[in-house]
Fold this protein.
Amino acid sequence: MEAIMIYMPIALALLGLLYMIVKQSWVMKQDAGDGKMKEISDHIYEGALAFLNAEYKLLAFFVLIVSVLLAIVAHFVETTSYLIVIAFIFGAIFSAFAGNIGMKIATKTNVRTTQAARTSLPNALKISFGGGTVMGLGVAGLAVLGLTGFFIIFFQLFMDGAWTNTMDMTIVLETLAGFSLGAESIALFARVGGGIYTKAADVGADLVGKVEAGIPEDDPRNPATIADNVGDNVGDVAGMGADLFGSYVATVLAAMVLGNYVIKDMGGNIVSEGFGGIGPVLLPMAIAGAGIIISVIGTMLVKIKSNNAKEAQVMGALNIGNWTSIALVALSCFGLVTWMLPETMQMNFFGEGMQNISSMRVFYATLVGLFVGAVISSVTEYYTGLGKKPILNIVQQSSTGAGTNIIAGLATGMISTFPSVLLFAGAIWASYAFAGFYGVALAASAMMATTAMQLAIDAFGPISDNAGGIAEMSEQDPIVRERTDILDSVGNTTAATGKGFAIASAALTSLALFAAYVTFTGIDGINIFKAPVLAMLFVGGMVPVVFSALAMNAVGKAAMEMVEEVRRQFREIPGIMEGTGKPEYDKCVAISTQASLKEMMLPGLLTIGFPILIAFVPLLFGMEPRAIAEMLGGYMAGVTVSGVLWAIFQNNAGGAWDNAKKSFEAGVMINGEMTYKGSDAHKAAVTGDTVGDPFKDTSGPSMNILIKLTCLIGLVIAPILGGHTAETGAVATENVEITADFAAKKVYVDFIIESNEYAKAIISVSSIIDDRVSTEELVISGTKAEVDAKIAELKSKSSQFKMDVTDNRTEK
Amino acid sequence: MEAIMIYMPIALALLGLLYMIVKQSWVMKQDAGDGKMKEISDHIYEGALAFLNAEYKLLAFFVLIVSVLLAIVAHFVETTSYLIVIAFIFGAIFSAFAGNIGMKIATKTNVRTTQAARTSLPNALKISFGGGTVMGLGVAGLAVLGLTGFFIIFFQLFMDGAWTNTMDMTIVLETLAGFSLGAESIALFARVGGGIYTKAADVGADLVGKVEAGIPEDDPRNPATIADNVGDNVGDVAGMGADLFGSYVATVLAAMVLGNYVIKDMGGNIVSEGFGGIGPVLLPMAIAGAGIIISVIGTMLVKIKSNNAKEAQVMGALNIGNWTSIALVALSCFGLVTWMLPETMQMNFFGEGMQNISSMRVFYATLVGLFVGAVISSVTEYYTGLGKKPILNIVQQSSTGAGTNIIAGLATGMISTFPSVLLFAGAIWASYAFAGFYGVALAASAMMATTAMQLAIDAFGPISDNAGGIAEMSEQDPIVRERTDILDSVGNTTAATGKGFAIASAALTSLALFAAYVTFTGIDGINIFKAPVLAMLFVGGMVPVVFSALAMNAVGKAAMEMVEEVRRQFREIPGIMEGTGKPEYDKCVAISTQASLKEMMLPGLLTIGFPILIAFVPLLFGMEPRAIAEMLGGYMAGVTVSGVLWAIFQNNAGGAWDNAKKSFEAGVMINGEMTYKGSDAHKAAVTGDTVGDPFKDTSGPSMNILIKLTCLIGLVIAPILGGHTAETGAVATENVEITADFAAKKVYVDFIIESNEYAKAIISVSSIIDDRVSTEELVISGTKAEVDAKIAELKSKSSQFKMDVTDNRTEK
């Protein structure tokens, strides 16, 4: 049983994908409605495909460049395999394919939901949520399939499918990082490009259509209306999918890296513990695999019976599915952790030394992750939910004008960082206290295990939104729109909480990657009491702020191009306002597509360029690689801390403005008077929403990608800055050998001094446990004095244990 | 000559204060104008005094509480002297007194400026700038007087006025930190309270007066108009003064702490180098003293001759004074550094070991500081200046409504962090590369040396603004207002650049304090690869965001109270609109005063409470003090990085909105059409300015106080978390003695093991240099293994130097 555990996650992933195909063909078999509906739906589908195709062209170019760069790195860095290029390309392809599946099903499900809504609400929910399920399982299934598939391949190639030592496993995982980098790169395009697309189309459609021409939203006479509906899919479906695909892969990868580190701390060999000695590395994949099946079960529970159901019942159905999934993940974590991990592990806590950690403590860490995933949604819901105090306050402040509305919205977003950050900080602390950074990474893994379910809940929103748009454009009976509106309204809430989940996952993923980075570089930690590291912490903190500004400006520019085009069509196409002339939808789609991809270049360059500059410019000037590694670590920490703050701030401020505006639709009480749409207060609230739109749909969600991609680039660069560079540029080499013979352990030290500035010692410790010899290699690097001191520490430890040390050290 | 250098700064400070008194009496002798003008001016003066008195009452209470807390600390921590309480009280009193001087002279100078403007512009400048000069010299003179005075006293008390060792000097400086804490606490009240006051009064006056009642700004019929004018003094004069007073003291203190650390690195005794062996400690004070005299010279150069001068000439006159000061500071730094510092120093760079640093490199570090001070003003000027690209862009975006205006303003503020942060990061790196953290602290000291000049330039703005208000209220000839408007317009520019200077000073001061903190606690650095430290970095990053939101909300609440009161007076006082009924100005002043002091409690509590909680809660739970010290350090770094970012973002966004709005006064070209006040675009720009007001005058500038006070509280707590706690709670004590006898050095080691988790070694190294015996004490603390390793490193170093080591280590 244990031996085949390595294939378990892949089997579960395939099972999930199989279910996805079944569900997909079920959705596709549903009635797609009459001519007009189908026509509109086809427009949206084609627009979405047009964006995907344009994106893929650009992507192919990008993937080519990065592949060449990676190949160059592989050429110069001995321990980096060329296979990282393959992994990278497949990571990109898998992510793109997952996005493709999601986008296709979403644009096919929308019209079927409209059609179903003509008969009943339960049917409409069944179909829209079915579409979401396909999307969710596609993303999660492909993520697990790709990651575990490549792991098995590399494990065979580099280690012949059996445990050798932690060094070899490190190379396996370093190569696997290419897959994650590929996935996250696509997420950059999908999330940032998609975010710009959706808002440019939205603003363009509203500004000329609603404001200038005075026609309602989703009116088929508006040339930008198709682009607007495509945008919902591009931004909310494909963007979110790519984001979570990236998080999923990166989290599991980081947990695997840290699992390998646990094995290192335990002496470099735990074959006797079963699972081929790679239990801690396999565990995150197993949790991910289990999560897929659990999500399938969860999605099956989402159903309503009454045709007269309201938002609360629909929300309730989703909650049952969601909470069941979370509870089942907790259960399966308990089973997998106790089964796959050694009962007691040794983990090295920086500054606190080696500690014994029971597997139960790892389980507690996973509970921390599940807790955070659940609570962050409530926090988001509180700050952005209709009828809650913060929203009522913004509504109140709208009565004195747009200025006070804006201040109130900004303040709400800012204050919402308080509980969110305390929650994250508490989670970091707790999961670390339970099981070190392995605990942090597993907390993230457990949280991400329900990704398929989360995505299903998340994707059904924009599908319902689209369904409503199609109902409007094809002039259906009002009851149809009413039914889709119920779904849409619930979708708005789940969109907000989904964003909370995405931030939480990005934050924990980044931390796990950050920890994995430190272990890859072999540095002792990141000391911000070194000025260059502190300087980079500042620079890192600045990048999310500038990135957000660029993204916001990009929306403005792209929207302006759209406005010009819509104005031109209204002017030049005869009979367009009377419904006799046909608007050129495809031109608007093309503008959104081109503008969004063009405008995402600069923020993308910022994201990718900075870490590369920080790593390579000092390297060219001959700076010591370990010092650079620390600087880059400082930069990564700066980006993560600032990025999480700005993500929460922007998402919640944007969400709050949006719902403050929506509050006016049902009417709100201001200073004792009922106030409705069209009032001055409502106009002020609309202004707030205009500011909030790019916040919550473009710059805010982009922060997730920024922080994850930054940490991933760091992780891929890590081996270049790590111990591996020691092979090059040695000034002088001198070998010092220490043979220590205490109890059942033999210690050999190769002490290589390359200069007074840089030395390293390769320490081989052979242990005889249960009549088996296991050897662990430990590399210590630093200045000569530092390495000297470390070796002395090693000796001092052995004397603590009352063992005899024979110091045969000779200097040559 | 060298012996009396310790009294030099105090003498220069007294000289500066003497000049201030001369200038003050000259200003007071000027004609204060006729009855109406004098009446209005008296109202403003009394309103300002009312605020000060209310503030002082609250302060006395606050100072009492903190004094008791400090006394408790002094009682329990053996090495903390009760004198820290005295230093704290005097720090508070000196800062309050400096604020009092500034506020009094500002409110007396305004009316004299109006009167002088009736005759000529050069006279008006002479008087308004004269008032600014009094303010600047009062702040700088009292700062240097208090700090150096207390240093001399503590130096006598703890060291008998002669060098003993670095440990004693550390106690001197730890006690002196009380003075700085007192000063910065007042700054919290003055800057945050003042910031809330000025905007509450401004918004209240505008909302009811201009918008509802339709009367012009500064109209005497508006009951809030006096409060509004008081606000200019409270916020821009007293607030800025207290801010820079705090920065000045903190910077010099931090540089002294790091100077002592240099002496430690050099073997603990440099008496042979002259200046009683405290050259590196004296130097920052000497630079500050020289800066006062240089500022006096600089202010003398500010004058114009032509009565027809425009903004450019006035700005030119200020620039001549400013640049001359900066050049003279550079010259004096060169002189003082080469004179007072040893030609070559040894400094310990973390992770890089001991390096020889020439005194010239310290001079280069001071140049870095002067460069940053000059360039940051240009950066601020670019992003907020009239006619510059960012402002023109915001103006352009105003044409499509308030929403796009807001987005453009936010984006401008966000993007402005890019050059600013790169500048700071470069400065940190460069000054550290030149001379370690001592270099960073001296860069800050050099920049701050021109504080008196900066404040003079800064304070003349609000004085001129007030003068214009008095001209309006007392219905003077239009030429008077035209002249004061020229001064006011220049004042707006200097206010923006002054804010840049204040941020830069706060940022560098915090870094210097941060470095001093690490040396006080005796930790090795702050490793963010420990989860609790990383968690605190997150929490620290969040605090400035929440603080800003609280400050913004506070303005809203206080403004609402003001609105109610003004509405009540308009309603209830008969004949008020006809000018026959007299408005109750004092009631509005009282509301602003009470509301601002009440509303600043929560952000103040956040600032003070968090570091105390982080330090003491884990201490109560028995956490290891060094681990807490690192966590607190992570928190400080988080607050500093995030605080600097939010300060730049908010100040520049606010300044940009303000000037975008002002652009409409002269008319702007939008889409080929000249657009003026009253247009829709202008209304959108006014909305932007409403949002920007609390940004630039309340929450933005408060960030400076937040980051400095956080680092200062850390510094005061440091000794509690540092090596000193070793005296208490020892589990077991075991002495290991090493006697090493190599060359002319003798090394004795007292090895105290308190537990396996905590040990420390006190290493005394006696050197015989030039027939003099000097002894340095070095404390190493950490886990037993870590201390062991450090001692081994010491031995390994001695073997590197080819000396014989006799290891007589015996374990008891």
Q: What stands out?
A: Residues 71 and 82 of chain A are 6 Å apart (CA to CA). Confidence is low (pLDDT under 50) at residues 724-744, 768-773, 799-812 of chain A. Residues 166-213 of chain A form the longest helix (48 residues). Strands of chain A lie at 344-349, 353-358, 668-670, 673-675, 735-742, 745-753, 759-769, 772-782.
